[in-house]
Design brief:
The structure holds two protein chains of two kinds. By secondary structure, chain A is an alpha/beta fold. Chain A contains twelve helices and nine strands. In chain A, 47% of the residues lie in helices and 14% in strands. In chain A, helix 5 crosses helix 6 (109-119). Chain B is of the alpha/beta class. Chain B contains 16 helices and 14 strands. Chain B has helices at residues 25-40, 42-56, 66-72, 90-103, 117-129, 139-144, 146-154, 169-182, 200-208, 210-223, 239-245, 274-277, 315-323, 333-347, 353-361, 385-391; strands spanning 11-12, 15-16, 62-64, 75-79, 108-113, 132-138, 158-162, 187-189, 230-234, 255-263, 279-283, 286-290, 326-332, 372-376. In chain B, helix 11 (239-245) links the parallel strand 9 (230-234) and strand 10 (255-263). Classes of the chains: A alpha/beta, B alpha/beta. Chains A and B meet through helix 3, helix 5 and strand 6 of A and helix 8 and strand 11 of B. Bound molecules: pyridoxal-5'-phosphate (PLP). Pyridoxal-5'-phosphate (PLP) binds next to helix 5, helix 11 and helix 15 of chain B.
């Protein structure tokens, strides 16, 4: 069975750059070309945000890009259609869908998994689908379609629960960098964040760990990578795309600033 | 166990649960593990009952409304939650939750509010116990419920406008949840209705259940029978209805009438009648009936009443609707306004706009002279006077 996460990790165990964009932003049909640009510019993993009207875990930037994307006419159905064929030009990059549960349930979990798998999607992040519900109702379906579920952990997550989520996960663990929403400023207390990342590192989990929320620039990216396999950037990238005359140029320049 | 009590995971039939991001897990889990023990603790009960009596002013009267009874040809009783301190039933819940928050060691309280009654009730108990208070309120609601914004500020609360979406109750709730995610250790979120992730719907229903507990006693005293034929209550999220229904849920002889806001009408795109227009979906951590488009995006409701302007209902009510245990009636803005005027002039009681919807439902009920009807008078209408004067051309 294909496991692009494991393949990536074998090639490159650290310094992984995972970039998030909101589907349908800045304009309706930007998503596929932007994913390609980001991969070519050096992203290791790509997360495609499914816009939702009420994104509870997101800060102002992703709230705004989601609103714009919905106004542009983006829907989960349309996104899944557009994604069919993406593997022709992105054969190896792990691709994730990230969104909230309600749009997925309206399409139907099985249908969602079927179409996502057909497009070659590797993993799914649904922040408001709790591990217990997943294990009881949806894990079988995910397995059937070889889709991997990513779980979040936070500085408040107990060790016992981290281990349980590590058992349920088969892609990577998403380490939320501190208390707050996507795009928040969590770099304030570096020592607290580093202690948390070290604490999780010392658990010797089976999954790789990527740090997200508030990673915005080269310094915060490098810091996050010290005790994890990589980091996830969303809001800062979307801010760079906002109002750019050429979003592809802006995306390339952004990756350059992180990697350079 | 009653089928109207939630399962261990917080389900009423297919509705309920706790669909929360991991960031909220420790908070919600802490609450879930402790709320039943805390509520059952005699020291808690003693403090809670004493505050309900001496601070809130309970028991609230059950009043036989003679002129309304005459008009509708049945015995109509009003449960006077409008006489609670702060002017609505909301304070029953906030008094209980502030004591709970203290026992959980929390220092900071957040809340959402629609009509502002829950915000005022939260600001009130925070002042009483000396806790910091932040209330999120939709910018549109801040405008249409100005007196309550002023009251919250007078009480020392910070009122933060929610400027996303339709800038009403749903958006205020989003902001409160985001605040909680950002402040995971020192903050307790006092939800204002029987909505949100388990255990909130059950917690709030239990704290409001004092309403129907008193009703039974008072009915026995005044009408010679503990069970009415009908209990009527408006439903925004559903807390006053849950409290008014609670001790009658397992009494099939009592017909429960839940009244939703139809806005301009259920066949228009300006409505908040969730039981008619909603399908199962997830909002604010709960699987319930939800107004949404074909793609699962939550749609923006409309009601003239800020407290009913919500695209979901609590999971207990979704179950009551689905199972047929309660009858759901929807009332337009215009009919609610007429009912507010009628009750004001027949009984000398100006009801809140939310409550006015419950009164308007009497028009649609087929009542017999022997029927005993209790209308839960959830709140008073001071906050709505601007709207009443404008809409009823009284200014
Ligand atoms: C007086 C009054 N009644 C009813 C409601 C609706 O809320 P619920 O359905 O939770 O009782 C409100 C909400 O603000 C209110 O202020």
């Amino acid at each position: 069975m294909i496991n692009r996460f494991a393949d990536l990790l074998a090639r490159k165990p650290s310094g992984l750059l995972n970039l998030y964009i909101t589907a349908g932003y800045p304009t309706l049909h930007d998503t596929m070309p932007l994913l390609r640009t980001l991969a070519e510019a050096g992203a290791d993993i790509l997360e495609i945000g499914v816009p939702f009207s009420d994104p509870l875990a997101d800060g102002p930037v992703i709230q705004q890009t989601s609103t714009v994307a919905l106004r542009n006419g983006m829907t989960l159905k349309l996104l899944l259609q557009e994604l069919q064929g993406i593997r022709e030009y992105l054969p190896d990059t792990p691709l994730l869908l990230m969104g909230y549960l309600n749009p997925v349930l309206q399409l139907g979990m099985e249908e969602f998994c079927r179409q996502a798998a057909a497009a070659g999607i590797d993993g799914v992040i649904l922040p408001d689908l709790p591990a217990e519900e997943y294990a009881e109702f949806y894990q079988e379906t995910f397995r059937k379609y070889n889709l991997r579920k990513v779980f979040l952990i936070t500085p408040q997550t107990s060790e016992a629960r981290i281990r349980r989520l590590d058992e349920l996960s088969e892609a990577f663990l998403y380490l939320v960098s501190g208390p707050g929403l996507t795009g928040g400023n969590q770099t304030a207390d570096q020592s607290v964040q580093q202690a948390y990342l070290q604490r999780v590192e010392a658990l010797n989990l089976r999954n790789p760990r990527l740090v997200g929320f508030g990673i915005a620039d080269k310094a915060s990216f490098n810091n996050a990578c010290q005790h994890a396999n990589g980091a996830i950037i969303g809001s800062a990238l979307l801010r760079a795309l906002d109002g750019a005359a050429d979003p592809h140029q802006a995306a390339r320049a952004f990756v350059q600033r992180i990697r350079g | 166990m009653s089928q109207y009590q939630p399962s261990a995971r917080g389900y009423y039939g297919q509705f309920g649960g706790a669909f929360i991001p991991e960031m909220l897990y420790p908070n919600v889990e802490e609450l879930r593990e402790q709320y039943l023990d805390i509520l059952a603790d005699p020291a808690f009960q003693q403090e809670y009952q004493q505050l309900l009596r001496d601070y809130v002013g309970r028991p609230t009267p059950l009043f036989r409304a003679d002129r309304l009874s005459q008009k509708y040809g049945a015995a109509i009783y009003l449960k006077r939650e409008d006489l609670c301190h702060t002017g609505a039933h909301k304070v029953n819940n906030t008094v209980g939750q502030i004591l709970l928050a203290e026992r959980l060691g929390k220092k900071r309280i957040i809340a959402e509010t629609g009509a502002g009654q829950h915000g005022v009730a939260t600001a009130t108990v925070c002042a009483l116990r000396g806790l910091e208070c932040v209330v999120y309120m939709g910018a549109v609601d801040m405008e249409r419920q100005k007196p309550n914004v002023a009251r919250m500020r007078m009480l020392g609360a910070e009122v933060r406008p929610a400027v996303s979406g339709s800038q009403t109750l749903k958006d205020a709730t989003n902001e409160a949840i985001r605040d909680w995610i950002s402040n995971p250790t020192d903050t307790h979120y006092i939800i204002g209705s029987v909505v949100g992730p388990h255990p909130y719907p059950d917690l709030v229903a239990r704290l409001q259940s004092v309403i129907s507990e008193e009703m039974r006693r008072q009915l026995l005293d005044q009408a010679g029978r503990e069970l009415p034929d009908y209990v009527v209550a408006c439903v925004g999220g559903g807390s006053n209805a849950a409290g008014a229904f609670y001790h009658f849920l397992d009494e099939p002889a009592v017909q429960l009438v839940a009244v939703e806001a139809a806005g301009h009408g259920v066949d228009t795109d300006k409505s908040a009648a969730t039981s008619v227009l909603g399908r199962p979906g997830i909002i604010h951590g709960s699987r319930t009936l939800l107004m949404q488009d074909e793609h699962g995006q939550i749609t923006e409701p409309h009601s003239i009443s800020a407290g009913l302007d919500y695209p979901g209902i609590g999971p207990l009510h979704a179950f009551l609707a689905d199972s047929g245990r309660a009858r759901f009636i929807s009332i337009t803005d215009a009919d609610a306004l007429q009912a507010a005027q009628l009750v004001s002039r027949l009984e000398g009681i100006i009801p809140a706009l939310e409550t006015a919807h419950a009164f308007a439902a009497l028009e649609q009920m087929d009542l017999k002279p022997t029927d005993v009807v209790v209308v839960n008078l959830s709140g008073r209408g001071d906050k709505d006077l601007d709207t009443y004067l404008r809409e009823l051309h009284l200014a």
